[in-house]
Structure formats: C-alpha cells, structure tokens
User: Fold this.
Amino acid sequence: MKTFETVIGLEVHLQLKTKTKIFCGCANTFGNEPNTQTCPVCLGLPGSLPVLNKMALYNTIKAAMALNCQVNPLIKFDRKNYYYPDLPKGYQISQNSLPIASDGHIFIGNQKNPNRIGIKRTHLEEDAGKLIHDPQTNCTLVDYNRTGTPLIEIVSDPGLHSPEEAHDYLTTLKLILQYLDISDCDMEKGSLRCDANVSLREKGQTPLGTKVEIKNLNSFKAVKSALEFEQERQQAMLESGERITQETRLWNDEKGITSSMRSKEEAHDYRYFPEPDLVPFVVEQTMIEEIRGSLPELPHQKLGRFRKDYALSDYDAQILIQDKSVANFFEECTKIYPHTKKICNWIIGPLLQELNTRKVEIKNLSLTPKNLTLLIASVEKGVISNLAAKDIFPAMIDTGQSADEIISKKGLAQISDESALIKIIDDVLKENPSVVEQIKQGKESAMGFLVGQSMKKSQGKANPKILGDIIKRRLANG
Amino acid sequence: MNFNELTAHEILDLLKSKKVTATEIYSSVSRAIEKRDPKIKGYVRTKTAFDESEYSGTTLQGIPISIKDNICIKDTPVTCSSHILEGFKPPYDATVIQRLRQAGASIIGQTNMDEFAFGSSTENSYYGPTKNPWDLSCVPGGSSGGSAAVVGGNEAIWSLGSDTGGSIRQPASFCGVVGMKPTYGLVSRFGLIAFASSLDQIGPITKDVRDNALLLSIIAGHDENDSTSANISIPDYTQAFTKDIEGLKIAVPKEYFIKGMEKDVESAIREARETLKKLGATFKEVSLPHTEYAVATYYIVATAEASSNLARFDGVEYGLRAFPEKSRRTPLIDMYEETRDKGFGNEAKRRMMLGTYSLSAGYYDAYYLRGQKVRTLIKNDFDKVFNEFDAVISPTAPTTAFKIGEKASDPLSMYLSDIYTISANLAGIPALSLPCGFSKNNLPVGLQIMSKPFNEEMIYRIAYRYEQSTDWHKRKVSL
Assistant:
C-alpha cells in the first residue's frame, strides 16, 4: 500500500491593536454599537482617500522581524478587487507583489529537536466589515466598525507535515506575537484568524499534491481537527484512485467535517494592481534599526535565560514563558525572594490553577509578587504548614490581603507549642491502641496514620515536623 | 454693467473701490444663469440664496464659483452626472471646497459633465448634453463641458473642473476660456470622485490667465488627506506675470502636427507661435517619439483604475439600489447587477469592461503592466525636452468644437480628440489651454502650453504675455 505525506501551509491573520484604523483616524476598538466607528474613508465614500497609519506599518515590521523575515526596503500596496457587501470600496487595500517582509522562519518542537518552519511572507492589509443576519427582517445587515482595522497576514511555507505540527506552529507563532504586544491574539474575538491549505503526496515525491483550502477555523483545536479530517478524507480518496479537486472547503465544528464552499473555477480573479492612492513608501535603515531596538525579549530567548539564570528545568521554564506576564511575575518574585525553584513551583502549580479556574489574566489579580513571596517564606519559616498555605492562597487572591493578615484572621498559625501538641497526641494514642501496638512490634509505617490523625485534630495547624518528633518520643517512653 | 461678464479680478477691483456689492455680483450671475442656462444646460444644480455678511473680511468676498459635479460638497447632492449616485450627499467637503470657503468663494452651482468624466463632449451625462455657448448645435467638449460652457457663456465668473486626459483643457479650448491641469500632486484630490487616481487633477477654468493663476493659488497645496499630494510651498502664481518671456526656449513637438488636424486650428497655432516669437521666445521643433502610443496607453491605465474606482457603486451603502422584476440569481447578485445596469450609462460600462479585461489574470502583463512601462517612456520623452526647453506648445485639440451627436456613436474618433492632452496626464506635468483664435465658423481655438512638473509659473508667464498681446479672451458670446 502507498504511504502518503501530509503537506500543510497556514495563513494567519492578525488584527493590530493600533489606536486608529489603518487608513483613517477612526478609533480601532472592538465591541461598539454598529457603524459608530466610521468615517468617509473607511466607509469608502466617493472621493475619500486612504492615508497609511505609520504605527500599523511599524508594528508589521516588528512582527516580521520577530519572525526572522527580510524587510523589503520599498513598501507598496495593491488593490484586491472583489464584490462583497462587507467591502465598501469593492476592493481591499492589500499587498500582492511586494509584501512588507518575506523569507522568515520560526522554530517549533523542543530544544533538542527544533523544527524550522519557513515563513513565506508577512504583509499588511485592511480588514473588511462584518455581516450580521437579522432573522426578524430576514435581512443581512452590515457593520463597518471593523472595516479598516489593520490586519497582518502571515503565510507559512507548505512545511508542516501533520495536524499536530500545525497546532504546534500556531501555538508558537501566537506566543511570539503576544510577546510583541501588538495584538490581542484572541481567536474568539477574531483578532487572530487562520486558514489552512492541505494536500497529500506520496512519500518520497517532491511535487505538491492538489491542495484544498480550509476556512472557518475558529480555534486552534478546530484547525487540528479539520486537518485531521481533511487528511483522512484525502487519503481515502487517493487510495481509491480518486483525484483531489482544488477547492475551498468550510469546516463545520459541530459536525466535525469539511464541506465544499467553492471550486477553483469559481475562485475570484482579484485583478490585483498597484494602489494608485498610496505612494510607495521607502523604509529607511534608521527605522529598521529603531524597530530592531524596540523588539522585546522573545519566548525562546526568555526560555534560555530562565534555564540559565534561575537554574530551572526545561519543563518548568517552558511553562513559565507561555505567558509573558506570568514570566514577569516570576521574575519580580525572584527579586524579593531567593528560592527560585520554590517560587516556580508555586506559580506553575497553585497560581496557574487559580488563573485557569478563574479564567483571568495575572494582571487582573490583586496578588502581588511581594505577597506570594511572603506566603512562601511563612511556609519555609514554619509559621504555617504547606497545606494551610494552599488553603489561604485563594483567599489572598480574593481579598488582595497578605498571607499574615489572613493567617491571623483565620487563626491558621501553625501550632509549634509542644504542650498543646502533647495533649492532642496523647488523645490520639489513647484512641488507637491497636496501631500503637503495631508500631511497637516494628511496623513503623503506621506512624503516618498517627501523624495524620493528630494533624486532623489540630485542624491542620500542627507543625508536622514537631508532631512527628513528639509521637516518636511518647512511643519510645511508653 | 453686466457683472456676470467680468473676471474675478475685475470684480475684486470693483468690490475694493466699493463700486459694487457682492450681492449685486451674485444676483447678476444668478440672472445670467436664469436667462442663459436653459439654452446652454451647463448646470445640474444651482443655489440662489446668498448672504453677503457670511463673506465679509474674506479675500474673495463671496464672488461666486461653479463646481464640476464630481467634487464633494458637504450635504449637497453630488452625482458625477450619473444615475447611480442619485440621492448621494457627501457628509464632507473636498479639500478644494474647504480652501474655497476659507478664501470666501460662494458656490453658485454644480456643472454638468460626462458621466464619471468619461468623455470629451459632455454628451454622456444622465442629465443630457451641455451646449457650446459659441454655437448651441456644438458640444462644449468634455468631460468638464459644463464648467467650460458656463464660464465661456458668462453664466459663471469662474469654475473648477477636473482633468484626467484633457477634461479641463479640451473643453476650455472648445469654449474659448482658460483651463489649467496642474502638475499631478499639486492640488489635493481628496473629495474628487475618482475616475483614474493616478491621472486625475482638479484645476481652474477661467476667463483669463490672471483669474486662472489666482484660483490655482487658492486651491493648490499640500493636503495630509491625500497621500499623493506634494509637500511643496505654493507661490503666488500671479507674480509670474511680472517677468517677460524674452529668450525663453519653446519646443514644438513634430508628432503633434498630424493629419486630421483642422486647417483653422493649424493656422491659429502658427500665428500664436509668431506672436510669441515677437515677444522674444525662440522656437525649435523637437520629437516626443512615444506620442503615438499615448492614447492607447491612456485607455489601458485609465480604464483599469476606473474599473476598480467604480466598483463601490454597488447599491449597498448609498446612491441607487435596484432589483430586477424577476430574480435571476441570488438577491445580492441581483441587486449588484440591476443597480449597476440601471445606474451606469454605456460609456461607463464600456470603460469598466475594458479596464476589467486589462487587469484580468493572464492579461495584466500584456496590458496594464506594459501600459505603465510605456507611460514611463512618455514621461522620459518630456523630461528630455524639459532639460533643454522652458515649455512645449501645441494645439489643445486637433479640431474646434464638433456637432452634438457627430462622434457619439464612434468612441474611437471621440477618444482621438484628446490626442494632444493625454500625454500631460500620463507624464504628470502641468498644461494649460488658452484661446488663440477662432475658426471661420467663429469657434474658439485653444493653444496648449506645457512645462515641467511644478513649473506652473512658467506656463502662466508665457500665457499671460501672450494674452496681453492678443484680444481673443475679450471676445464675448452672443446668446
């Protein structure tokens, strides 16, 4: 039987969160009343003309550099002509022949087996409006608020060979883009979108097979599922000797299938030509240098530094850098408190869990690095038990109070006072004579049971180390 | 006194010496419109209300101006003489309108044109043709035929037109007035409803050269809203009149004197040349070798851009929206098709189809791309000549005004009436037409003067000296 190789290329669209739109002064914000964020330019009214928002260009170049692309010294725009009600001019101002940057790459996979994925091009264009179907009137309504939002398109090489790799690529790409702080990167709000091109070829063959474009992918999970479905569909067709037709297919997330949207013959002829309303723009070397200088530390750089500077494992560092603000929080903590591994454990354990269950970002928590380190210190000094610490942690997040404040309020301070503990232990020993007997006969593992029972009686406040010492002493004496 | 027959600078003198009020001027023009426009049909919309006090203290003190119907005026219908823009009122002023308002001009009316500026006769208008004030059976030229006719017919003081391939100069020539197409980028296009973005320029149409320079000084200058607008300082163009033209070198392109040129045009140009010689200019015949490709190049580039610029008229946002009686396809496609079918005239459809074709996959390289390359060659021809010469002169059009209907069914011969004007748009250089004689049939002939980019001063200098030594501009139509 023939074996097939999957070839995937991804097109990612990213809305830039610039203050204003790409070609006019309208505010570039999400979620306002329909058609309140428009002007003659983004409405494409007759006689209006576009003027390029330099910040959009600046941020596109920034993204291109982070993706290791070559920035073209001459920037020009083209018109992509097609009719659709969400496109008020009847053409989209985009870039065809000369993108802002090309020939980049990123690495996916782990550090031991890095997988270099080529980036074909990065270009800048304007977003279209939004169509809303109104079931009451059975009309389609148009909201032009989104029209003219700056949009970056990042096109990968057809260099991904499995749905998992595609997923991995998207995750890595998104993280890089998040680090640049140029976009919300939110697929739910549509600020990050993805189309996938997929084809199969016989293993060992160089020419690409007939590709299918998949649209309507609303999450990374959908990308993966759609690619898995499409991979199977195409393989089954090829195995039964059928030909793949070049077409655009839509992913149906509920049904978990793709279905044909339009064939190659029905595809638009976009009649690209240079946008005469915008003069070509020369990217000066000084601008390139300025942008290069403004690039933040990127995820792979932070990873390397965390491993080296904080002696973290690859696993720990990987988790920390997945969110730039979590990584920053970690570093803030290390400035206050020296035990980096303990801080790391607290962050990738309880803290990330809280973020997950609360579905919030760390910047929205009232937890300060100082309070977290004080909490860790309290455990280390034996003021409270680890268990108690984990217990009060959610309260710290809820109230923004320090560990000390909550400990005293809840009376959670550890009991290290021997006389108090001896009373508890004596009760436990009295209640469990058979266990005591077992231990005396050499079954030392039963010790744990007695410690547990005593801890329970102290409502978790007993210092476990002192507790163990006293029990041993009492048994030896008794 | 018939104030409507005066130039703006003559009116300004009278206003300064308080011999007349702005209201009297306005009423005089209004009355002229009432009397004359039923014959000329140069206006598509006029305004009668005028409040002098709104203009006190301004430079122009309310001197009226007419505006071609493709320049946006806030809250006023603007249609490009097309059915498809029916009901459209721009919510904003074009930059040139803002500048006119600042200078204290009052807009008295909007003038007829070929639909979307597609034409050379103003016959392609949804409102019907405009007549030539010198002979009502003739066309006024186009596409700014309305503007040229109302100025030539003395039912306006002055006017703004737009020129993509000769649309200011050819009608100026046909109507015996002065029309300037400025250097591409000199006047903001913001608010000019685009025909071909890389060729369009707004410019003044006036009764004499002084008014022309005056009006250009007002509307020219950098505009942040137009990325193609040049960031240069604008001189007072009337200062050019202080210099004589002794020793100026003027080139005459041999390719412009061809078969098909009307005899009366040829002799008027020859005479103009003699006049300029007497004023001290020297002449030499030169070659602009790529001239023969200009018309073809123009109709590739201009129609390609037009096909895209006119895509927005689709019935969705504004203007006409039509549906077929019986649905043919989906409701959306039905609306697109019916709206554009009902909304556009034949010439607009012809040009959009041409443009769509030349941009299509597989044809782009052979047509549009090659067209742009030839355009560069045409520009290089001019650059070379301007290295050595101060100006180039030629006839503005090969003929005087032709009869209404004469070329309406023959687009190619119509296109050829712009044969001398198209190159200036392709090269982006300034060019002006001014009266230089009359034919046996008493129809005006225009002389075209071109110079290098942003050297409007040179053109005004030559034009003014020529005008001062002739009296063509003083002849008045009798209606």
Notes: Chain B has one domain: 3-250+387-474.
